[in-house]
Every structure is written in structure tokens, then in C-alpha cells.
TrEMBL record:
Signal peptide segment: none
Any one GO biological process: DNA repair
GO molecular-function terms, A-Z: DNA binding; metal ion binding; RNA endonuclease activity producing 5'-phosphomonoesters, hydrolytic mechanism; single-stranded RNA binding
The species this protein was found in: Stegastes partitus (bicolor damselfish)
Transmembrane region(s): none
Cofactor: Mg(2+)
Subunit field text: Monomer. Interacts with PABPC1; the interaction is RNA-dependent and stimulates ENDOV activity.
Pfam families linked to this entry: Endonuclease_5
Name of this chain's protein: Endonuclease V
Protein encoded by which gene: ENDOV
HAMAP family, alphabetized: Endonuclease_5
Chief place where the protein resides: cytoplasm
Location(s) in or outside the cell: Cytoplasm, Stress granule; Nucleus, Nucleolus
InterPro entries the record matches: Endonuclease-V
Amino acid sequence: MSAAPAEDVVRRWESEQQRLRLQLLDHDTESWQQNPDFSGLQRVGGVDLSFIKGDDVNACAQLVVLSFPDMELLYEDSRMVTLTAPYVAGFLAFRETPFLLEALQRLQENQPELLPQVVLVDGNGLFHDREFGLACHLGVLSGLPCVGVAKNLLQVQGVNKSQEHQSQIAALQKGGDSFPLTAASGKVLGKALRSSDKSVKPVYVSVGHKISLDTAVRLTHACCRYRVPEPIRQADCRSREYLRQHFPAADA
């Protein structure tokens, strides 16, 4: 799976990203997004993939749906999957989206009343070298509002771990404080968010689909008990626990 794909595959992926990018909505589309306390929002989804240690092909694809604002578990789906696309920087969505989309589709078919009103994705959205990361891909294909929340800074379009960036992080005083991630072009691609008072290391929030950046940042903060927003944290914890239970020898 580490072998590089043929150039024609990468070109096809780039073309697909460009095609889907035309369908992306980077503004608020839902009534709950207009309310300061998100009144009307009841269900928030989180997705993640966890891999067996030493195996970059077999993974647990995880979907959770939590109540809002209480962050209580309403639904979970853990499913072992076999990834068929190689990992290529900037094209993570082609590896992971099909399985996350299947999990949402299973929920839609079996318990549609629990379908999340927004999905938080462990990865980037518009904060991407071609402004179409995993959260955008999943959002456009699912039709659901999506937010990208990355734990590490993606260094693209002139955004990097410069001294200025570190100074901006140090200036974040409390949970909810943020600063823009501005490309060399001047375009704001996302925001670095101090997600809780206790965590000084920020998360990186960007638009996935059907939500504005400011709303995405407010929502991410509202979902945080710790540094990582609870829907993503729960998806990560539960997928890792699934691997521990089913593949104990692999030391996942």
C-alpha cells in the first residue's frame, strides 16, 4: 500500500476533487447554525479510522452520534474495512471516505432518526493544498454539514510552523480563542482554536461543507470537554477499543 499510484490515478483524483469542489457550500445552511446556543441542534456525529499497529490496510471505520449539548452517546458503528487506495499526501479522502460514507448510509437505512445534523471529521476541510480535504469530500458526498478538525498543523499554501505561528498560539488566552490560518494569497483557510482552558495546544478547524468558518469554530469549541472535540475523541477511543478487543495480539 505504500507504493505510489500511477500518474494517471493522481490526475484522476485531482480532477475528481475539482469537480466535487464546485458543489461545496462554505456558508451556514441550517437554521440551528444561526442561533448563538445552537438551539435546534440535537445530534452531532464524529468519524475516524484506526489501524492495526503495523498494518496500513486493515482498519476500524468508526461512526458515533452524540447528543448535543450533553455529548451522550446515541449511536455507534464499528466496522473492520480493507483499504484499497494507497496513501498519498493530499488525497486521504480517496482512502477513507468510502467507508465513512457507508457508515452514514447504514445509519440512514436502519435508524434515520439518529442521523447526525453535522459531522466532525478527524482531518482537514478547506485547509488543504487544493482546498478540498477529507471533511469536504465526505460533506459533499453525504450532503451533511461537516467540519474538519485536525490535531496537527498541515503546512500548505504558505502556512507553516513559523515563529510567528508559535507566537500566535502563545497569545491564545482561554478556551474559545482562535486566530486565522492565512494562505500566502491572503485567503483564510481555517482557524487555530484553543479548544479548552486546560489545553494550550490548539486544534485546526476548517470548513467541510454547509457551514461557515466562524460557526465551525464555535461548534467545535462547544463540543470540547478536552482538547479534541468529543465526537472525534469518542470515535477515536471506540475504534481503538474495538481493535484491542478483536485483535489483542496486534497491540493496536
